[in-house]
Known about the structure:
The chain is of the alpha+beta class. It has one domain (3-263). The chain has helices at residues 3-29, 38-41, 69-74, 85-88, 129-136, 147-181, 188-225, 227-230, 238-263, 269-281; strands spanning 46-49, 93-96, 101-107, 112-118, 233-236. The chain has a 5-stranded antiparallel sheet with strand order 4-3-2-1-5, with helices on one face. It is elongated, with a radius of gyration of 39 Å. The protein starts with a helix and ends in a 48-residue tail after the last helix. Residues 55-62, 74-81 and 270-276 have low confidence and may be disordered.
Amino acid sequence: MGRAARAVCVSVPLLATAATAVLIVISTFIGQTNVNNNWLNSLYFLRLDTRYINAPQELADIPGTNLDNFVLDKIGVDLSIQNTANLVGVADFYQAGLFSYCSGTFDNATNEWNVKNCSSPSSSFYFNIIDIINAEANNGKNLTFPNQVNDYFKAVRALTRAQYICFIVGIGATGLEFILGFFGFLSRWGSCVTTFAAVFAFWTLLAGSVINIALYVSLSKTFDATFNTFGVRGSINRQVYILMFIGVAVSFGAMLFWTLTTCCCSGRRDRIIKGEKASRSGSPVKGYERVASPYLGGGGPAPPPPHQQYGQTYGKSEGPYEPMRHTQV
């Protein structure tokens, strides 16, 4: 296989590696980092709808009024179907990203989710919605979350840290894979080294993606299970997860192609053809050449053995026995 074919073989996994990096960065790293960018705000893992949070039952007085919950119940106001987020002092929704979260309001007229605030990106961030809501609530005391939610959040911090490490290491290994991939144009040894980086990148990205989707799907279902009593429901962003797992699949394809370029696409065909042409033209070629034999005294062909004339030793005895006589019958 020639050098042109070798270049094509290496270019395929190299482009796949670049595509992996782009897809993972878009789906994982840049979401919820800029309050003024609607596109970045659309790249979230989980959205919690807190418009109907059932927290006013924890308040002594409804902010802005002199009525308490008991009076509202008596006059027939069903707090469970009202937008109680404003009464509590929290946002209508919260969206989780890898480094930060964003919150905002829901516009009933346009049916749009408008981000109004984003936290500062941090490598130690984890989506602790309990602390976030308690910090924003204006009732002066912590809200009571369902036991299922409290129990689940005991594992959220560890899972968040695990998926964060996997994504950081995975995207770093993908970058290293892309750099090493250029050495694959030179030889199969370059492809061999790149293959190790590709294998490591794929498995770390896969681990991070699995932990991430398990974390936020479970959190969403936990809030959904308590919606009738607490009024908060969750929804995952399917588009983001489609991009994420397409990126992981492309990383797997790059790993396979790097493996193939290690054992195939050697690029030796051009060298062999050039060697044959050079040998026909009489110019020296690289490879094996016949060397002079010390017994022949030169590099030329060995002389043929001397021919013995028939009957040259006829009649001469070279031993105790008489040679056979030839008689004509």
